Amino acid sequence: MKQKLKTLGYAGISIFLFFSLIRFPDQALEAAIRGLNMWWEVVFPSLLPFFITAELLLAFGVVKFLGVLFEPIMRPLFNIPGAGSFGWIMGMASGYPTGAKIAARLREEKQVTQIEAERLVSFTNNSSPLFIFGAISAGFFYNIKLGLLLAVCHYGANTIVGIIMRFHGRKQEKHITKKKRTSFSLKKAFQEMHRNRLKNTRPFGEVLGDAVLHSIQTLVMVGGFIILFSVLIKLLFLMDITPFIAGFIEPVLPVLELPKELGLPFISGLFEITVGSNLISQVTTDSLLQKAMLISFILGFNGLSIQAQVASILAKTDIRFHPYFFARLLHGTFAVILTLILYKPLYLDRIVIHSNEIPAATVQENTIWMDIYYMLQTVGPAITMISLATAIFIIIYHRKKA
Hints:
The chain is built from 17 helices and no strands. With 402 residues, it is mainly α. It has one domain (23-172, 179-354, 361-401).
């Protein structure tokens, strides 16, 4: 019976999407182009270097090196092997879904157990500094000082989630022999790295080609989800479904001292972060804190678009999705709490300089994140096209070789 209901559900969603596309073809095309532009201007060129680097570091044993080196820190703090430090660092630097990608690769190479991989996924899917400072703070709010508040709350809340999720699966691990605590050893770390590199007999050219190909394949999948959810959000709005859902949220917002006008942008943000953040920035509120709280939550929640990307990556492994989803709810909640606590010291106190008044408007400043963001919008499409052409060339070369 359960499987039959699933079949009906999947069929119903597909039919709804099909008829919605027929009903609103122009608006769907416009939304698809907007999602495509977002992907090939910023997402693809910004994530590709990190994905390729991650593949190379895994292939050449550097992750093994980091694993031995950071074991004394990661094990007591997050109850995961030291190799998880690589996913944590890369996740913060490059943004989602890098953490899921690395966790899946570590699981495939058996450097982490299923439970450890689930713990790792739960706190390594962060938003990138480029998105927080470049897209949200500079692009939507024209206020780079807001970026520090959002970043500290986002990464701080995710670290708290990681510490809490260390207790995930403790009962299932009872039968597993506990690993001995290891001390810091640079020599042992190098030996592990060297041993891992010797196991990889592929020539450098093949390793590099595989790294590029695997990274581009993942990013093409990510692009598909971005375009799909961009269209889906537009269709749900046109069919009055998101306004209908927002109608249930709006009466609750005044209780939390939030204006009703934030209901629809918040619902949109639960589907896709970029769309929701942009809509939230356009609403007039009494205080910027109200907007910052909602954006902190949807950044931590990741949005259903990101969650679908993560689910697709995890589907190839035995890593379960529900611990990650639970962690997203925790992340959003803790991010809101930190925003309330840190709003004054990290934002208000920083903008009240040489003035007794708090500026209601925003302040534009030139930062490295803004420069990178605007540069990607210019050269990003060229990088994406060259990379896709490279992937096609590698595929053709592999087939001829086979």
